[in-house]
Design the sequence.
């Protein structure tokens, strides 16, 4: 909310508190990146959803939007170590680092 004050984000978290061994700053950055991408690209009036589930040995965090989605071809490029695409106007390479970081974690 601090970065995008008018963002419509619905947050649903379990009531129980768990400690998970992880790099908190890295996870925070990945979640922020995924939320920002969802807000930027979904073009939907519905809220972005952030929620988590807790299993005996895992905690899973989800970021869900109601946009048109990403083609399988783009998903494969976003999850690789090569630039995802090059913009036509500037020739700038787009790396989609949020997808790559999420995959590596």
Sequence:
């Amino acid at each position: 909310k601090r970065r995008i004050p008018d963002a419509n984000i619905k947050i649903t978290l379990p009531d129980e508190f768990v400690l998970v061994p992880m790099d908190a700053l890295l996870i925070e950055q990945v979640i922020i990146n995924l939320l920002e991408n969802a807000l930027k690209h979904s073009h939907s009036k519905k809220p972005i959803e952030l929620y988590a589930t807790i299993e005996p040995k895992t905690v899973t965090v989800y970021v869900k939007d109601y946009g048109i989605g990403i083609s399988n071809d783009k998903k494969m490029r976003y999850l690789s170590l090569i630039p995802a695409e090059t913009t036509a106007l500037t020739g700038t390479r787009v790396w989609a680092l949020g997808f790559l970081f999420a995959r590596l974690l």
